[in-house]
């Protein structure tokens, strides 16, 4: 099906409405290219962190600094949010707008929970352990990498929130469906990046 109309054909959406139009398919291709650039950017930040993680300038080391239970809780929340975004896409493929909006809303709430824990973590480091952005090369690399990911999470929350509003205003159509699908792809991407951060920054920091 290659129709470019916003309304479902015969009142019913195709099985994969995100790919039902040429515009929708082009959005998916363009977004994959965008994710390629983002992967290179995060790869550069990871490489920088690995090069500088031992440069503590007599400040706190990773082993002294990190509190794994807090970070593990944030990781669990973000991984669950990835699952709820999968449920959202499944609801979209069934044509269930309200269920789709509900799962997207839960994803947003979980994303806010993750951000809240991350902000609290940063506050604890700065307030009680004197670990600021300019404390050392290690701290600069840490806040740049983890903070940059947090900014991506915040952007995703705003983006998905706007899409929820569009779903109620314009409905679930072959125009709004690609937006939902692309936002879910983005959310999975930042979840995958966080798994690498949790492993490379926190786990290796504690054992190293």
Give an overview of the whole structure.
- With 208 residues, this protein is mainly alpha-helical.
- The protein has a domain of 139 residues: Four Helix Bundle (Hemerythrin (Met), subunit A) (Up-down Bundle), CATH 1.20.120.80.
- The chain is 77% helix and 0% strand.
- The chain is built from six helices and no strands.
- Helix 1 packs antiparallel against helix 5.
- The radius of gyration is 20 Å and the shape is elongated.
- The N terminus is likely disordered.
- This is Cytochrome (Ubi)quinol oxidase subunit III.
- It comes from Paenibacillus barcinonensis.
- Keywords: Cell membrane, Membrane, Transmembrane, Transmembrane helix.
Chain-wise SSE layout:
Blueprint: H1 22-52, H2 62-65, H3 68-93, H4 97-129, H5 137-170, H6 176-207
Helix pairs in contact: 1-5, 1-6, 3-4, 3-6, 4-5, 5-6
């Amino acid at each position: 099906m290659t129709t470019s109309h916003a309304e479902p054909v015969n009142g019913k959406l195709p099985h994969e409405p995100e790919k039902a139009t040429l515009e929708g398919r082009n959005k998916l291709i363009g977004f994959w290219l965008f994710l390629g650039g983002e992967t290179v950017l995060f790869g550069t930040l990871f490489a920088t962190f690995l090069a500088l993680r031992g440069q503590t300038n007599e400040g706190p080391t990773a082993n002294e600094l990190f509190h794994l239970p807090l970070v593990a809780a944030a990781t669990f929340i973000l991984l669950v949010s990835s699952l709820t975004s999968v449920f959202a896409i499944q609801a979209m493929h069934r044509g269930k707008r309200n269920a789709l909006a509900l799962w997207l809303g839960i994803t947003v709430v979980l994303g806010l929970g993750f951000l809240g824990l991350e902000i609290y973590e940063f506050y604890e480091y700065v307030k009680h352990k004197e670990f600021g952005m300019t404390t050392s090369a290690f701290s600069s690399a840490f806040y740049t990498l983890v903070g940059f990911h947090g900014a991506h999470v915040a952007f995703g929350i705003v983006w998905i929130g706007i899409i929820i509003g569009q779903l109620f205003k314009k409905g679930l159509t072959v125009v709004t469906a690609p937006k939902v699908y692309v936002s879910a792809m983005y959310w999975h991407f930042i979840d995958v990046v966080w798994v690498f951060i949790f492993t490379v920054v926190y786990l290796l920091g504690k054992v190293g």
